[in-house]
Structure formats: structure tokens, C-alpha cells
Q: What sequence folds into this?
């Protein structure tokens, strides 16, 4: 009965991944979002529940659990309840193919599907249906309009998203996520900067592809500057205007799970996933000393007493510690120095930080600008990038 | 045993929502029932080891065609028409035609001696499909893009008429 | 069991157990949360204005145009996936086959662009 | 019992007939298109199953299934565009009410 044990193992893993999503992406993600938003806007963010407001999102979850579920009049109750579940499950399924690291010969991934990135794109496309269904079943004008807007935005950006994924698949010659990381390990460099056969001359193409992918991913998960569907000031809250309590939380969970999954996929495709940056020892110690210098300067000038400067101090201390550890590790000839999941999570959170940063830097786009960007800029640029890189690899520098 | 159980479950996941698709009085529910049907068919492809086709099935059928159908329903007031009669007068006739055709096809299926080949559990992969498209079936491949072009232009012309 | 089957068995179990786990908090709320049905409360929220008419209103046909162009290009993309995996082995010939394929489709994009199907005004 | 070709053919036949029933009995043009999509899916199951059981070495059946999926998408795009056009000029998408071509 080996299939029965596989099913049990899979069920157990589902619980693990779901808990990870609820705790890391939803709770810590929302906390980080609020803290970083506060910091960028020179406020403090959540502060009172728990140390540094760490338990704020836990309290919010408990609050949401006690909230009444209001079902609007004439809503289609079945679809109204199914829509948030569908969005959350689509967010969960993205994570099946995300590898977290590698311990020895064992890759930490739920399943390394042969068609990994295609599967990812397919699951991301399922969210649209949940959103349309939620918007329609609320029987609310704003919700329906928000759902339609959201859907037309998401479908418009699915194509550039797929082109970014395809560019990497083409370079790596495989669709498997683990295979993509291994291809980067083999050539000893991230696809962002270094391509097989082109070496570092391929960097412009890699950066272009990464920008295409990240822009499309931001739009795909409806984040600022592409948050028209949820624009509070125009549409109440878009497709989930009528959702209360835990149903609303499920939509949020699905959205955060997908945003983090996009960041994770970008880290895997362009930043080498779990691979350790392959820098020489002198560079590590230079970086470390620079970080220490920042710390000392902040302490001497007394700027560190300012609550808004303190996050920089903390980051600098952490960065200095990391660089010093890496320096001694590389000196001692250990490879890799740190466990691989550490690198994967660092890269993923760096990209998440980037997403939150964008939110407070750019104003919301207008609908026509948004669609122009997708169809008139990202689509041609993505296709051209794919063709030129392919041309250079097959024709100019044929192996 | 496991394979048979999976097959039966997937057949139910495919066929039961398919019945809802053609009988539901609510057109949005019909359209949403397409999704489990398409996902069930995806599962059948997996049992047949056709992994790439399965991925495409989710991407195109569940992710694109269903969205297109939902868009049209919502743009043509179909979403509000739950009390509108959805079936025409041909229900008995249609049911008879469907059952009779089904009977004929089943007769053909069970009467035919299929030329089975003995090769067990093939390993299909994306690369072999890509090679097939770019070598043996290259004409189909290029014609497909023409079909896509024509349908894009045609659909734009039809949908934008009278503007 | 073959790898493909096990892989997708996991996906199926993830979808099934995930649905249960997502529905679980809804059940908890059903048990815990208060319930008081007031006619005003179940009114749809339209910024405080009493809702009138149906939720459905005449929507712009442009939504359909974008969905349409999306479907065509989504279908185009599915041919790029197998090509991306093998084009290195097949060399320049396969590359130019794909260039022809894409050029034909770019004519479609140019047409849509020219006819203003990509404009939102 | 082993799952063989006939199992898949039976399922696809049933799916095809369900789709046919939908096409024959629905008034709503969009619902008719949904019936056609079901029928195309049934044909795809056949193609992939034949590929698996009758020619396991080749990928011809899967390639054709991909082409059918492409054609299904084109058919949906053009068919639904026609529905939109009919709705805008005749204010209905019920095929039994679209009768301006009858005389």
C-alpha cells in the first residue's frame, strides 16, 4: 500500500505548508508590511500588543475569528463561500514546487514537478476565477466592477509573467524549479548576471527579464502601484467589499501567499534560490567592515536614538554579523558556510521588502496606463528579450 | 487497485459537474462547474502520463477559456438571469439524441479490436513534444499561429462592430 | 509508482486537504461568532447609499476585448514552453521556426494596436 | 481490475454526450458554447488515451490534443465575440430569440 503512505505524507505536508503560509506569509507578512510602511512614512507602526507589536497580527486573527459573517441579501451563498476558499487554495498550491533549500543530497521541496514553472503559472491563473466568482456572488455593484477590473488586469499581466518564466526556462533548458537552481549552480552564477555561453555579457538580458517578471508579478497579485481593483478611494474595496471576518481573511491569506510565492519564484529563477553567493573572502570582509562602519557612525552621532533610524542600525548589525561569519567560513574553506534555507529565505524576504517599498514609492496607475504598460511595453519587450537572447545563444554563440 | 480508485474518483469529478454544467438553471453556476470538469480531465491526463498536456489544460481551459466565458456572461446580463428559462423545447429530443449517439459510440468501442502495443508505462516529457512540433509537425505548428492570428482579427472585428 | 503519478497525487492531496483547512476557520466562525440578522445589515454596502436596481449594470465591451487578446496570447505561450526546453538541441533551424510563429502573431498584436483595441478610452 | 483504453473511451463518450445534450437543449448561446467545450474535452481524452495505449512510443496524440486546445480557445474567442455582437444589436443571447435571419 505505498500509495496510502504517500497520501498520508502528502496530507501531513499540506498541514505543514498551510501553517507556514498562515504564520509566515500572512501573520509575519502583514506585520512586516505594517512596520515597514510605518517606517517609510516616519511612523512607528504596531507597537502595543507584545514586544514591538509582534503579536498584533495574532490579535487581529483572533478578532477576525469572532466576527460575524454577513452574507449580503440575494447573494449566491454557495459561490460566495467558495470564492475565498478557492483563492486561498490556489495560493497554497503555488508552494508545491517551491524548493526551500538543499540538505546534503535532499532538496527541501514538496514535489519537484517536471513541469514546475508551467504548473506555477497555471495555478496563478486560477486565482482570477475565484476573484470573478467572489465579485459576482456578492450582488454588489462595486464588488462586481472590482472583480471585472481585477480580472482584466490579472489576465493582462499573465502574459508578461509567462514570458519572464519562459526566458528562464529557455536559459536553463528545463521547466523544473529544482532544475533551474541546479543550472545556476552548474554555471556558478545567478541568471540575473550570468548566462551560459554569454557569461557576464548576458547581464542586461537577465536584468530586463527579472524586471519584466517582477513588474508582472506585482500586478498579478494586485499590489500597489497596480492595486486599482482594490482601490479603497474609488471602489470601496473592490471584489471583496462584502466580505467580512474570516472570509475576508482567507482572501488576504491567498493574496499574501501568492505575493510571497512570486517573490520566492523570482528568487529561484533570477537569484539562484538556495545557492550561496560565491564571493571571495576579501569581498566579504570589506562588506562586513563597511557595515561595522555604519553601525559605529550611527552610535557615535547618536542618531541611533531616533526610533526611525533604529531599523537601519539593526539591519547593519545583522549584515555585519553575516559578512563576518561568511568571511571566516570562506577562510576555513567550508562550502556552503550557512545552511541553504537561510539564503533562500533571505532572498525571498529581500524581494518582499522590495514589494513593500514600491508600495510607498509609486502612486497608483490609471487603468489605461496599466493596460498600456502590459500590452504595449512589457509584452513586446518580453518577446524581444526572449528572441534576442535565444538568437545569441543558438546562432551567434552556438555550443 | 490504486489506479482504478483514482480513475473512478476522477471520472466522477469530471462527469458530475459536467451534468451540472448542462442542467443548472443558473448560468454562472454552470460556468463555474466547468472548472471541476476541466480539473478532472487534467487528472485523467495525469493517469495517462501526459503531464504537459495536463498543465496546458489547467492553464488554458481552467485559467483562460472559463475566464472568457465568465466575462461574457457578466457583460451580457446573464448573471442576473437566474429566473430566465434556460432550456428550449427540445429537452426530450436532445436527451434521446445524446443517449442514442452514446449507445452507438459505446457499441463501436466494444466491438473494435484495438491494436494494443505491449510497451509498458512510457515516459513522456516536454522535450519530446517540443521536438515533435519543431520537426514532424512543423506545418501544423506554423498553421496554428495563422489560425490564432485570424481568430484574433476576426474576433476583434466582430466584437467592436458599430463603435 | 511512476514519478508523474506521485507528483500529482501530492498536488491532488494538497488541493483536497487545503480546501478542508481553508474551510475550517469558516466553521469555527460559524460556531463562535454572534449572529443577528437585521434587514439593514444584509443590505449591500454602497457607501451608505441605499442600493437601487440590480448589481448588474451595462459594462464596457472593452473588458471582453482584453480577455480575448489575452486568450490568444496565452495559447501562443503554450507553444513557447516546449520550444524553450528543446531549442538548444535543435539549433538555429528550430529558432527560426519559432521566429516565424511569433512574427505571425505579432502581426495580430500590431493589428489590435493599430485598431485601438488596446486603448482604454 | 486494470484501467485500460476502454475505460477512458467510455468516460469520454459520456462526457461527449453530456456536452451534446447541452448544445441541443440550451437557449443561452454561451451555454451552448460551454457544451461544445465539453465535447472538445471528450475528444482530447480520446486523443491522449489512444496515444498512451496504442502508440506509447510517440507523442502524436498529445501534440494533436494541444492543437485541439488551441482551436477550442480560438472557437471560444470568436464564438463569444459573436455572442457579444448579437447581444449589442439584438439585446438577447438566447438563440431561439435571434430570428432576424429567418426571413
A:
Amino acid at each position: 500500500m505505498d500509495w496510502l503512505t504517500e497520501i498520508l505524507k502528502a496530507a501531513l505536508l499540506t498541514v505543514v505548508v498551510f501553517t507556514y503560509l498562515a504564520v509566515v506569509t500572512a501573520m509575519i507578512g502583514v506585520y512586516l508590511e505594517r512596520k515597514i510602511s510605518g517606517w517609510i512614512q516616519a511612523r512607528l507602526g504596531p507597537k502595543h500588543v507584545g514586544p514591538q507589536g509582534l503579536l498584533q497580527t495574532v490579535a487581529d486573527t483572533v478578532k477576525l475569528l469572532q466576527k460575524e459573517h454577513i452574507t449580503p441579501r440575494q447573494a449566491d451563498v454557495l459561490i460566495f463561500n467558495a470564492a475565498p476558499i478557492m483563492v486561498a487554495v490556489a495560493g497554497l498550491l503555488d508552494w508545491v514546487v517551491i524548493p526551500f533549500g538543499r540538505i546534503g543530497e535532499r532538496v527541501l521541496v514538496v514535489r519537484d514537478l517536471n513541469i514546475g514553472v508551467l504548473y506555477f503559472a497555471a495555478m496563478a491563473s486560477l486565482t482570477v476565477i475565484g476573484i470573478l466568482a467572489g465579485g459576482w456572488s456578492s450582488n454588489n455593484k462595486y464588488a462586481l466592477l472590482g472583480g471585472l477590473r481585477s480580472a482584466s488586469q490579472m489576465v493582462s499581466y499573465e502574459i508578461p509573467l509567462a514570458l519572464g518564466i519562459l526566458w528562464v526556462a529557455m536559459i536553463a533548458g528545463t521547466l523544473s524549479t529544482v532544475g533551474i537552481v541546479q543550472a545556476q549552480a552548474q554555471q556558478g552564477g545567478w541568471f540575473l548576471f550570468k548566462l551560459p555561453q554569454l557569461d557576464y555579457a548576458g547581464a542586461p538580458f537577465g536584468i530586463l527579464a527579472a524586471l519584466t517578471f517582477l513588474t508582472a508579478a506585482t500586478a498579478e497579485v494586485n499590489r500597489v502601484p497596480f492595486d486599482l481593483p482594490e482601490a479603497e478611494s474609488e471602489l470601496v474595496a473592490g471584489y471583496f467589499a462584502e466580505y467580512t471576518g474570516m472570509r475576508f481573511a482567507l482572501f488576504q491569506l491567498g493574496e499574501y501567499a501568492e505575493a510571497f510565492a512570486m517573490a520566492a519564484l523570482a528568487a529561484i529563477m533570477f537569484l539562484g534560490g538556495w545557492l550561496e553567493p560565491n564571493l571571495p573572502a576579501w569581498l566579504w570582509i570589506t562588506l562586513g567592515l563597511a557595515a561595522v562602519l555604519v553601525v559605529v557612525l550611527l552610535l557615535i552621532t547618536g542618531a541611533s536614538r531616533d526610533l526611525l533610524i533604529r531599523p537601519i542600525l539593526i539591519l547593519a548589525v545583522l549584515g555585519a554579523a553575516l559578512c563576518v561569519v561568511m568571511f571566516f567560513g570562506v577562510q576555513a574553506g567550508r562550502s556552503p558556510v550557512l545552511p541553504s534555507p537561510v539564503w533562500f529565505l533571505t532572498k525571498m524576504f529581500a524581494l518582499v521588502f522590495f514589494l513593500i517599498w514600491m508600495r510607498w514609492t509609486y502612486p497608483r496607475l490609471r487603468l489605461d496606463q496599466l493596460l498600456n504598460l502590459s500590452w504595449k511595453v512589457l509584452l513586446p519587450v518580453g518577446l524581444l528579450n526572449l528572441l534576442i537572447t535565444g538568437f545569441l545563444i543558438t546562432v551567434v554563440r552556438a555550443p | 487497485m490504486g489506479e482504478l480508485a483514482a480513475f473512478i474518483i476522477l471520472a466522477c469529478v469530471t462527469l458530475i459537474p459536467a451534468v451540472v454544467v448542462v442542467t443548472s438553471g443558473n448560468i454562472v453556476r454552470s460556468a463555474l462547474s466547468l472548472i471541476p470538469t476541466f480539473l478532472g480531465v487534467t487528472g485523467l491526463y495525469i493517469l495517462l502520463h501526459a503531464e504537459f498536456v495536463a498543465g496546458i489544460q489547467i492553464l488554458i481551459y481552467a485559467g483562460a477559456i472559463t475566464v472568457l466565458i465568465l466575462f461574457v456572461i457578466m457583460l451580457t446580463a446573464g448573471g442576473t438571469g437566474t429566473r430566465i428559462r434556460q432550456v428550449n423545447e427540445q429537452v426530450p429530443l436532445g436527451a434521446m439524441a445524446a443517449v442514442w449517439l452514446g449507445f452507438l459510440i459505446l457499441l463501436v468501442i466494444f466491438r473494435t479490436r484495438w491494436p494494443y502495443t505491449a510497451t509498458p508505462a512510457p515516459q513522456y516529457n516536454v522535450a519530446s513534444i517540443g521536438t515533435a512540433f519543431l520537426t514532424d509537425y512543423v506545418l501544423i505548428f506554423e498553421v496554428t499561429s495563422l489560425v490564432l492570428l485570424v481568430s484574433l482579427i476576426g474576433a476583434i472585428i466582430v466584437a467592436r462592430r458599430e463603435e | 509508482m511512476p514519478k508523474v503519478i506521485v507528483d500529482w497525487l501530492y498536488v491532488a492531496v494538497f488541493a483536497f486537504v487545503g480546501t478542508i483547512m481553508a474551510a475550517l476557520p469558516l466553521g469555527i466562525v460559524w460556531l463562535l461568532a454572534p449572529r443577528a440578522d437585521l434587514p439593514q445589515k444584509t443590505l449591500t454596502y454602497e457607501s451608505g447609499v441605499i442600493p437601487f436596481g440590480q448589481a448588474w449594470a451595462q459594462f464596457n465591451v472593452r473588458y471582453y476585448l482584453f480577455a480575448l487578446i489575452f486568450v490568444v496570447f496565452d495559447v501562443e505561450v503554450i507553444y513557447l514552453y516546449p520550444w524553450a526546453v528543446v531549442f538548444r538541441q535543435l539549433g538555429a533551424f528550430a529558432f527560426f521556426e519559432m521566429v516565424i510563429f511569433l512574427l505571425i502573431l505579432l502581426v495580430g498584436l500590431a493589428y489590435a494596436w493599430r485598431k485601438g483595441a488596446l486603448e482604454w478610452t | 481490475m486494470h484501467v485500460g483504453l476502454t475505460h477512458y473511451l467510455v468516460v469520454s463518450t459520456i462526457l461527449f454526450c453530456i456536452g451534446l445534450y447541452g448544445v441541443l437543449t440550451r437557449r443561452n448561446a454561451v451555454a451552448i458554447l460551454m457544451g461544445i467545450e465539453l465535447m472538445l474535452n471528450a475528444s482530447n481524452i480520446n486523443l491522449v488515451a489512444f496515444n498512451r495505449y496504442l502508440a506509447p512510443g510517440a507523442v502524436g496524440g498529445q501534440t494533436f490534443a494541444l492543437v485541439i486546445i488551441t482551436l477550442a480557445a480560438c472557437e471560444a474567442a470568436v464564438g463569444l465575440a459573436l455572442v457579444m455582437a448579437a447581444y449589442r444589436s439584438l439585446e438577447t443571447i438566447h438563440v431561439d430569440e435571434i430570428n432576424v435571419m429567418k426571413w
